[in-house]
Design goal:
- This protein is an alpha/beta fold and about 350 residues long.
- It has one domain: Metal-dependent hydrolases (TIM Barrel, Alpha-Beta Barrel).
- It is built from 12 helices and 15 strands.
- α3 runs parallel beside α4.
- The mean pLDDT is about 95.
- Bound molecules: zinc ion (ZN).
- The site of zinc ion has 5 residues, from loops.
- Keywords: Hydrolase, Metal-binding, Pyrimidine biosynthesis, Zinc.
- Belongs to the metallo-dependent hydrolases superfamily. DHOase family. Class II DHOase subfamily.
- Its EC number is 3.5.2.3.
Length: about 350
């Protein structure tokens, strides 16, 4: 691997990345996503459990994992790390089953109603505290969609409100619990994570590094830039850039790639989600290069997350070349649908390929 302080501008190799936040969907949609994912790039992928119905038990997660492995093209060597969807009723015994299975890497907390298929999420934090404490005992991390769901709170303020009001309660109730604040979007979240103990980390998406909320309204309403948590201000984006530029091991790659059929985005009530799985590392490379810190990309993408999740660092490599590629305007999706990918139609300066 190239020296981390001076990556050559023409290209470089780095260890294969891992994606610690991916929505694979299920059935024909899952088959599409697996088909779009570049070969030999992402290795471990943390699979989100917000299917309908949600993946709430170890048994369901193992069945979902089997469906993924069955649908996976033979030349796509990803390793799915499964998650459980935390509900008010998840018993501590389910945590024991999850850990004992060896296939569950984390539990996901969605405040009820926060995002796509989150109706079964947590409504009363007191109810889940015994389960969170069991997770701390058994060493199973908690991934959090960190937004309050009170409709009276401004949509742009919901993450900051969660960070100041809810997160300290969770941390205090389950000391030692490893927590990943997912897809952080605000200065408040970045600063909280940076100042918290080593048990608290965060994932950052490519869209939140590249864009502020102006992009939602650039020349008109842009439904394909709508995700949750929503894009924030330029000051917030600058704080995320500072976080990755710092090289802190608390921040790592999680795309939150979340496909919806074009018709479900371009609608009276469009779904939240940005689909980046097909060119994720290229998009991150663009963001890091614009921020003048592409030397920080390899550890962000390939080391910090593996270390936090206590899985071995990847040794196989990918080649990141300064070779322009144009993102397709749309991709086939499920049965008779299409999905508009992140940065559709745009030319990206980097191409990522498995190192031969
Ligand atoms: Zn997500």
């Amino acid at each position: 691997m190239a020296d981390a302080t001076s990556l050559p501008s023409a290209g470089f190799t780095m260890p294969r990345p891992d994606d610690f936040h991916l929505h694979l969907r299920d059935g024909p949609e899952m088959a599409s996503v697996l088909g779009h994912m570049p070969r030999g790039v992402m290795h471990r992928v943390l699979i989100m459990p917000n299917l309908q119905p949600p993946v709430t038990t170890t048994e369901q997660a193992l069945a979902y994992r089997a469906r993924i492995l069955e649908a996976k093209p033979a030349d796509l060597d990803i390793e799915p790390l499964m998650t459980l969807y935390l509900t008010d009723k998840t018993p501590p015994e389910e945590i024991d089953a999850a850990v004992d299975s060896g296939a569950i890497a984390a539990v996901k907390l969605y405040p009820a109603g926060a995002t796509t298929n989150s109706d079964s999420g947590v409504t009363d934090y007191d109810l889940v505290m015994p389960t969170l404490r069991r997770m701390a005992e058994r060493g199973l991390p908690l991934c959090i969609h960190g937004e309050v769901t009170d409709p009276s709170v401004d949509v742009f303020e919901r993450e900051a409100a969660f960070v100041s009001e809810r997160l300290p309660l969770v941390l205090a109730a389950a000391p030692g619990l490893r927590i990943v604040l997912e897809h952080i979007t605000t200065r408040a979240a970045a600063e909280f994570v940076a100042s918290a103990g080593p048990n608290v980390a965060a994932t950052i998406t490519p869209q939140h590094l590249l864009f502020n909320r102006n992009e939602l309204f650039r020349g008109g309403l842009r439904p394909h830039m709508y995700c949750l948590p929503i894009l924030k201000t330029e000051d917030d984006r600058a704080a995320l850039i500072d976080a990755v530029r710092s090289g802190s091991p608390k921040f790592f790659l999680g795309t939150d790639s979340a496909p919806h059929a074009r018709g479900r985005k371009e609608s009276d009530c469009g779904c939240a989600g940005i689909y980046s799985a097909h060119t994720a590392l290229e998009a991150y490379a663009l963001a890091f290069e614009r921020a003048g810190c592409i030397d920080r990309l390899p550890a962000f993408a390939s080391q910090h997350g593996a270390d936090f999740y206590k899985v071995s660092r990847n040794t196989a490599e990918v080649t990141v070349s300064r070779k322009a590629r144009t993102v397709p305007a749309e991709l086939s999706f499920g049965e008779d649908c299409v999905v508009v990918p992140f940065l559709a139609g745009q030319e990206l300066p980097w191409t990522v390929e498995a190192t031969a």
